[in-house]
Structure formats: structure tokens, C-alpha cells
Amino acid sequence: MALLTPERLADIDSLRTQFSSEEQLTTELVRRKWLTPLQGRWLLRGHGQRLFVGSYILVDRIGEGGMGQVFLAQHRSFGRSAAIKVLRPDRRDNRRGRARFLREMRALGRLDHPNVVHAYDAGLVGRACYLVMEYVPGPDLAQVLASGERLPIGHSCEYARQAALGLHHMHERGLIHRDIKPGNVSLAEGGRTVKLLDVGLVKERMNPDTDGEVLTQAGWLVGTADYAAPEQVLNARNVGRRSDQYSLGCTLYHLLAGEVPFPGSTPVARALRRVTENVRPIHDLRPDLPAGLSEVVGRLMSREPKGRFPSARAAADALAPFATPLVKAVAETTVHISTCPTLPTIDGVTATESELSTPHDAP
Ligand SMILES: Nc1ncnc2c1ncn2[C@@H]1O[C@H](COP(=O)(O)OP(=O)(O)OP(=O)(O)O)[C@@H](O)[C@H]1O
């Protein structure tokens, strides 16, 4: 069990005599915080080797999206925290899928901006694709919205402004995010810095061309219907830089109005409304908005891409007069890093193909 230091391994030998089963012993190790609950569960199920991904050890499961699961992890030598996305087996289980993943990762490696999540590493362990990223503690803006907290107008504008700067950086390097929504705009540094998440894999998800390995457009709509640009709703391949502006506009609208711009009973109905209707001006819902902000939101959400700003940078500049600096605007979400055991000594264990083939938290 290379998760533990040699001293603790020695202690375990004596602990073994006190516990009649592996389960009781593991429960005790979790209670002592020598193992995290995730590590305890996986060890008990005989999947301990799956905890080792490249140079990292998985610590906790953060969540799951359409492409795979995201874990909190710790570097085996440096102890640095990171987030690791491990692609679902059906998204990676062919050569083209893996080649595309690596192409996307190379693109991601070109990005270097304070408002875009930083990628540290990516690779394959056996046939499993994983991406190691900067850990962003959050909360993300979806969580902020779900908390019911009414944000100051200036903070909402600052979130959107920083997100626009991150988008501009991506656009300059030839990348389009394609999935800007509150859940993909997260906060770091005690709420002072915005980070765009889910960068790099989105192109694969939104490009329904081959392999049968992408979500159907209807499936994609479920999570994104409220934020996708009209041209994107009509044709998922028909996405340009200005489509990201529209999605950012929807996100800002939601933050300011407390409701999505096109409410409706189903994702498809909501998505289609934006193709046929102009958005209700936001000052109808927020008459207290400063003069000019409603126009900026309206321009971001122009139905025609050419009606939007010439660049995300121009959008950021237009938002700047309405933005106020973020001074620890929100509390960070609780992360189970406190349950992370002290940095373990690793004796060169490398995960194998089969060990990572089903990296779910219910192996
Ligand atoms: N770098 C990161 N740091 C911290 N948490 C992250 C990071 N990247 C993703 N997450 C979190 O992991 C969870 C899953 O993220 P993921 O991007 O896989 O899915 P999603 O955005 O929820 O859905 P989808 O990808 O299908 O749109 C989310 O709660 C997300 O906030």
C-alpha cells in the first residue's frame, strides 16, 4: 500500500492485530486521516492502483461531467494540489478519440492566462486519457446562483469582464470555448479571480462528426440550452468566437436578472426561443442597472454575430466601467482537502491500462 509512509505502514502492521477485517482497518485509517474516504473505498474494492495517475495520487472525487470524472489529486513528489479529469471509457476507447484528445491537449498547453484554468499535464496511462489542471476551489457561478445570493451589479460585471479577458486569450490562440455557462466560470483566490473551466475538451464534445463518441445534440442541449448562441443551436459546428460572447452575455444576464434569458419548460424549447426571439431587455427586470449596462448585455446577446462586439477584449472594455474590484466577494467552497493524508512515500507504482479503464467511484 504505497499510499502511506514507511512509518505508517509499520504502524499498520501492529494495528492489524486490533482489527478483525480489512474493512475495519481501512475505516480506522480513514478515521485517522491517513487515507481519504475515496482512497479507503477504492482500496477495499481492490482498485488501489487506480489511485495513481501519472505523477499524481487521487484524493477525492470533485464531480462528473459529460466527458468524464474530475478528481482532486496531489502530486506524488511536490505535494501540489491539482484537478484531474479522467475521460470516460466510451470517450477515449478508440485511436481517433485518443489522437483528438492529445491534439486538444496540445492546444490547451498553448494557453497561459490568469483567467483560464492552467493545464499542467496530460497523457495516457494505458488507454486512459487524463488531463491534469490547476485546482480551482470555486465556487463556480452556477453554485453562486444556486445559493440564491444576489450579487452586487459591479461584481457580476467584473466576473464577466475577467471571463471575457480569458476568452480573448483563447480566441487569440485560435480556440473557441463553446460551452461558456455559469458552471464553467469558477472563482479562485478567495473569489477575486475568475477562471474559465472545461477548456480544451469542449471542441470534441461539440463536434458531432465521427466515431459516435460525442454527445447527441439533444443530449448536449440539456446542460447548455440556456447559454448557447442561436447559430450554435441551429448547427453545433457553426460556432465562432462571437458565439462565446453570446454565451457570456447569457451568463451575465442570469447573474444580473436572477433568471435565464429565455425561460421555458424544456431545454429544446428554451434553446429554440433564442433563434426566433430577441431577449427581453434586462432593464425590464433590473430597472436599477446603471445607464448603458443594458446595452452592453444586449450587444453581447445580439442574435446576429456581427451585432456583437468585434472581440472579447472589446466586450471586456465595455464592461469595465460597470465592474467593481472583487475583494473576497464569496467564500470558497469546502473541499475535502482537509482529509488529504500527509504526502505519501511512493515506491514507483504506475497504473496500468486495466487499472484505469473504469475510473468511476463505484468500481
Ligand atoms: N480545474 C478544476 N478545479 C476544480 N474543480 C473542477 C475543475 N475542473 C472541473 N471541475 C469541477 O468538476 C466537476 C465536473 O466538471 P466537468 O467539466 O467534467 O463537467 P461539467 O462542466 O459539470 O459538465 P460538462 O463537461 O458535461 O459540461 C464540476 O463540478 C466542475 O466545477
From TrEMBL:
Which SUPFAM superfamilies does the protein's record reference? Answer: Protein kinase-like (PK-like)
Q: Which UniProt keywords apply?
A: ATP-binding, Kinase, Nucleotide-binding, Serine/threonine-protein kinase, Transferase
**Pfam families (alphabetical):** Pkinase
Q: Which GO terms describe its molecular function?
A: ATP binding; protein serine/threonine kinase activity
Please report the stretch or stretches of sequence annotated as the Protein kinase domain. 56-323
Residue ranges annotated as transmembrane are: none
User: Which superkingdom?
Assistant: Bacteria
- Coiled coil (residue ranges): none
Q: Where on this chain does ATP bind?
A: 85
Write the protein's name: Protein kinase domain-containing protein
Annotated organism of origin: Gemmata massiliana
